[in-house]
Amino acid sequence: MKLPLLGADDIEALGPAGAVDALAAALSGGLDPETSPARHHVTVPGGELLIMPATTQQVTGVKIAGVAPGNPAHGLPRITGSYLLLDGPTLLPLALLDGAALTTLRTPAVSALAIRHLTGPVLRHLVLFGTGPQAYGHLAAVRAERRVERVTVIGRTQHRVAALVEHARRLGVDARASETHGAEEVATADLVLCCTTSATPLFDGTLVPDEAVVVAVGSHTPDAREVDTALVSRSAVFVESRAAALSEAGDLLIPMAEGAFSADDITGTLADLVAGRSLGEKPAARECPRFFKSVGMGWEDLAVAAAVHRDSAL
Predict the structure, then answer these.
(1) How far is Cα 283 from Cα 260, in angstroms, rounded to an integer?
(2) Residue 217's closest CA among 70, 72, 109, 144?
(3) Are 150 and 177 spatial neighbours (Cβ–Cβ below 8 Å)?
(4) How many CB atoms lie within 10 A of CB 133?
(5) CA angle (255, 184, 257) in 5-degree steps
(6) Furthest C-alpha separation in the chain
(7) Which one of 7, 30, 157, 222 is most buried, by most CB atoms within 10 A?
(8) H/E/C letters for each residue in the chain?
(9) How far apart are CA 279 and CA 238, in angstroms?
């Protein structure tokens, strides 16, 4: 039997809302991210291979993603790879998916699922750090969940910032480029999205309003972070899984090493939010920023890949 190849068009057809619903359904169905297999890192000449397996009773899958830091300078994507989807009971291959397109859809969907539970229905001011595929994907995913009135784009390359601003305007959003590299814009934001490859904090965390939400997705190594200790220490912190965050999220591990944060300070997980579990006297009940840190997990790829495959077969 010829293995179906599901490319970017097939994956994009699911759409941000479909991907968010697939993630929510997986968690509502009892999937426990804390037991999801860990990501494996393999250093190779071009950068790094990430091997991300996951399984449920119905399906099993594995993503092999390449992270090639030198690719963008040559006009090539930084993230490459493929996803192999298998039948759960028999482990027979079901489909091969474009791994980069899958990541571009699933990562913003994870953020959007958190945003579904952490923000109100209208975002007056979205501050977006980054100008790559994840920035575009996050803008689409957030707009699928919330009405966005204004966007400020912050990036290192002027023409890429201008392109994303123009893209947002074509979508009907009041968009502009930052003139202060985030200092003033963060102070008036109700949602800050960090979608960059930066290894150091992007802004002063003391400037974030108490009612704001910050989402960081750009790093998954213990020595890199997009937000500073000031933000983490004053926020209600949510993660995909405690185990994954405490092994990979430099945004949390660096403040922990500084003595400003501990594992007990994690307010809740994505599964807690989806299940509506009471957070008791955790900081979420107080007036403070809410910070969602995502490192990317194999179960998320599996949930979205299975939804893509299901829809392609209809």
Answers:
(1) 15
(2) 109
(3) no
(4) 19
(5) 5
(6) 58
(7) 222
(8) CCCCEECHHHHHHHHHHHHHHHHHHHHHCCCCHHHCCCCEEEEECCEEEEEEEEECCCEEEEEEEEECCCCHHHCCCCEEEEEEEEECCCCCEEEEEEHHHHHHHHHHHHHHHHHHHHCCCEECCEEEECCCHHHHHHHHHHHHHCEECEEEEECCCHHHHHHHHHHHHHCCCEEEECCCCCHHHHCCCCEEEECCCCCCCCCCHHHCCCCCEEEECCCCCCCCCCCCHHHHHHCEEEECCHHHHHHHCHHHHHHHHCCCCCHHHEEEEHHHHHHCCCCCCCHHHCCCCEEEECCCCHHHHHHHHHHHHHHHCC
(9) 11
- Residues 181/137/160/213 CA torsion (nearest 10 deg): 0
71, 163, 178, 187, 263 from 105: Cα distances, Å: 20, 20, 26, 29, 29
CA angle centred on 173, ends 168 and 175, rounded to 5°: 65
Contact 282, 235 (CB under 8 A): no
pTM for the predicted model, two decimal places = 0.94
pLDDT at 37 over 90: yes
pLDDT tens across 98-142, in order? Answer: 999 999 999 999 999 999 999 999 999 999 999 999 999 999 999
Angle at Cα 292 formed by Cα 169 and Cα 198, nearest 5°? 70
Across the range 220-247, mean pLDDT stands at 96
The residue to which tokens 């509502």 are assigned: 28
* Residues 245 and 221 sit within 8 Å (Cβ to Cβ): no
For 199, other C-beta atoms within 10 Å of its C-beta total 13
* Mean pLDDT to the nearest integer, 179-183: 77
- Distance CA(140)–CA(142), nearest Å, equals 6
Which of 290, 295, 238 lies closest to 267 in space, CA to CA?
238
The total number of residues shown for the chain amounts to 314
